[in-house]
Structures are given as structure tokens and as C-alpha cells.
Amino acid sequence: MNKAILTFETFLQQFEKTLSKAASQKNPALYLYQNNARTPLFMLEGLAKLYSSIYNQKKISKLKEHFKLLEDALGAIDYYDSIARQLANNKKIPPEINQYLLAQTREKLQHLNELLIEKKWIGDNNQRLVKIRKKLKEINWLEDEKNIEEIKTFYGEAIYEIIEFTQTTNYHFDNMEEDVHELRRKLRWLSIYPQALQGCVQLAESKTKSKNLSKYLTKEIINSPYNQMPAAGDNHYILNLNKSYFLALSWIIAELGKLKDSGLTIVAIKEALQQTEAINEADALNKTYRMLGPKQIKLPVLLNEAEKISKIFFDEKNLENLVIGINKLN
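Given the sequence above, the corresponding C-alpha cells read:
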């Protein structure tokens, strides 16, 4: 079996195992959410994004859409549920706010349950995985050497798309979701692709290190399991990424994530207030800040901090130095 198919199959089996158990549950969506189904879906979506670009085939693009639909649905559940749990013991938060967040969580769960049946993942006509595997076998996959060359090209293009994204706004962020969260999403794919590719991307030490990198190489980042690559195994060609710059990438993803989470908590409460009270956006925002207390950093400050760390990171050209090149293994 072709290595690309085997890579897909690794995560298809992981998801299939969870999906099979979910199908027997009263609430399949809840089971998927509580049992980390989002991780293999991220990997499958990443592979489909990568290979749909390399092969420019509708078959793979459709697979990407299927994986993304479920992953987005799980993400929507996580958004409301995680904030509801975060605020559950905060006595300053009125019950109706938590009730709204929990209601939204239930609504998103129901949406996913409907998708699972509609898109034939579960139910009497659960043929989605069968169809996915059939489509994968129909692709005329490249040989290993050409495949890794195309992966390198794709990865480089993904980097420069991110750089262009930041340059369009000159690192000025107005919106937590559209600016900060979107930039983090794009950066996060750069860390997902190497994990998804199951060994054909490895981290390599550089002989020379920039002094700018030291601030990113924290103990937490260095020891993160997300920065440990799958073993090269029987891959004959691998793409080497600079380890220090990859760790720097991990740092910016983590820091933007903290700012994003804090900001989206504010956004969620503001949304809940506007949906449950006759209140305009400005008043809802002020009321949100009063509820969260003086320790809560306000949105403009969070956005400004995201701008600051992003500008420094990109001015240092950390992404441009990420790719080392292709290495042939004996």
C-alpha cells in the first residue's frame, strides 16, 4: 500500500475506532467530543489540505470538506462548553449566562449528531469511511522522492501565505476571531502537517543559532509532546525542519492561544448578554468586564499584545528559516 494512503489510514483507523463506539451511544456527538475525536480529524484534514494542493484533484478536496465539517462542528462544541465550564464556579456570572452557553453547547451537539447521519458517518447507511478509502485508492500517488519534494514546496507556500496574511494588516488586529484566531489557525497547520505526515518530516539541529530564538525556547515548549516528531521509520526521504525555529513557531502558537482564549471568553459573555437582555454591544461589553473583574485584561490590550508578539516574531523572519531541506536516508 502506498505510504500516503498508509498515513491517511493511521488516522482513519483512530477515528473509526472512536466513531464505532460513538455510534452505539445515545448522544454520538457527545461521545466524539469527550473522547478526543477532533485530533485524528485535524490530522486527516491536514493531510487532505496538503494532498489536495499537490494533486489538485476534486476527490481529495471533497475529503478535506468532509473532515473539516466534522472538525468545525467539534470546535463549535468546544468553544461554548469550555467557556461554560470555565465560568461555572464564578459567582459573579449570572445563571442565565451559563444557561445560554450550555444551550449553545447542546445546539452544537445536536448539529453534529445530524451531520453524522446526514453525511453517512453513522446510521443505517454508514458508508462514509468506505467511500473515503475507495477514493484514496483511486489516486495516482507519487513516488517517495517526488512526494517529499512536493511536500516541501507546499510547506514553503503555506509559510509565505501566512507572511502575506500578516502583511495585509501590518500586524494591526481589530478582531479576536478574524485576526488573532485566524492567524493562529494558519500557524497551527504548520505544526499539524509534520505530525500528520507520520515520520517523513523531522526536526534537525542547526549549527548556528540566532540570539533571537532564546526567548522562545522555554522549558514548556521544549518538553511539549507536540514538538516530538513521529519516528522516520522506513521513510527513505525526509523533510528536515530547523528544530529551534519550529520551537519558536510552537511558542507563538501557544502565546496567541492564551490571548485568544482570554479574548473569546469576553466575546462569548458579551454575546450571551446581547442574546438574553435588551442591551447594545457597548453596554454588553462594559457589563462583561464588570462581571469578570479588574484582573480581566480588556480586548484592546489583548489585541495589542497579540500585535506586539506577532510583529516581533515575523520581523525576525522565523518562518523563513524554518525549512532546511530534503535528506535521503540510507
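The longest strand covers residues 237-242. Try to locate this feature in the C-alpha cell string yourself.
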